[in-house]
Amino acid sequence: MARDPELILAEVTEKLAIHFPPEFQMVVRHVDLATLSWAPLVFRLPWDVLLGRINKGCVTVAGDAMHPMTPDIAQGGCAALEDAIVLVRNLARARSRGQLAAGLESYVSERRWRAAWLIAASYLSGWVQQGGNAGVWRSSMEWFRRNIYYKFLHSRIFDAVHRYDCGDLLSAE
């Protein structure tokens, strides 16, 4: 299906978005098939970000390569912009000392925990809101979502996500 735009279109209109508003259906049906693609969401374990190798010498990963996440907390683009600011700031500091590899290491140290938190929060949010693996536990998951997640956890997750400040592009040093 990933290489056949007509199959992608059928999957979206007949299954995935069947209950979406008619306006959405109309837009999807009029898409230029030459521009349509299908790519799976990728999950990276948060502890891989915390414990794994993210940089080596003068090479590092950033954006989705560092922290792919589901769209459930709407932070993918924001996190990539944060990466850019933190990366440029650390590289500028390191460049003035002639130590680019140290600048990348500093960038990774600064971003590691934030990225792991975003991945975990996004996954948890999506998993709970979509009913987990439901099955025989459907009523338990609905109870958890209604009585625990939305009352206590959801707002704390979003507060933590939105209170983050990556700082200025170039700090005065």
From TrEMBL:
One of its GO terms (molecular function) is FAD binding. It holds the Pfam family FAD_binding_3. The keyword S-adenosyl-L-methionine does not apply. InterPro entries: FAD-bd (IPR002938), FAD/NAD-bd_sf (IPR036188), MOase (IPR044560). Keywords: Monooxygenase, Oxidoreductase. Residues 52-119 form the FAD-binding domain. PANTHER family: FAD/NAD(P)-BINDING OXIDOREDUCTASE FAMILY PROTEIN (PTHR45934), OS04G0423100 PROTEIN (PTHR45934:SF1). Belongs to the 3-hydroxybenzoate 6-hydroxylase family. This is FAD-binding domain-containing protein. It comes from Ensete ventricosum (Abyssinian banana).
